[in-house]
Amino acid sequence: QVQLSESGGGLVQAGGSLRLSCAASGRTSTRFDMAWFRQVPGKDREFVAAIRLKGGYTYYADSVKGRFTISGDNARSTGYLEMNSLKPEDTAVYYCAAGGQLILSSLTISSAYPYWGQGTQVTVSS
Question: Which residue pairs from 45-53 have beta carbons closer than 8 angstroms and sit at least 24 positions apart in sequence?
């Protein structure tokens, strides 16, 4: 079993920055893929970014490309999401997800990830 623990959410003004962290513990793997999804009430969970910790391959949603950066520490099974130039529409609960090495085409699909964090609230004020 794998447990994911997120931190770093909060309230920030538009144009500001936040950094989210996701630490994996338990039966972690050096071949982990990690991703961030976000969700607002009444809407489906939305893909934000993903990283293959071994190798560093990254993938982003168009809505965050150029503003958000996903990174990871393979040895520590930890992932990060650096969020810059935040907009009010980025307001959501952000979830960390992880799984064994997935097919690349499935990195953006929430159901592909077996492990999830509890979520952390990000609120961007205008």
Answer: 45/95, 45/110, 46/92, 47/108, 47/109, 47/110, 48/81, 48/94, 49/81, 50/107, 50/108, 51/79, 52/101, 52/107, 53/77, 53/79
Per-residue pLDDT of the chain (126 residues; tens, 9 = 90+): 889 999 999 999 999 999 999 998 887 666 689 999 999 999 999 999 999 887 778 999 999 999 999 999 888 888 999 999 999 999 999 999 998 878 888 899 999 999 999 999 999 999
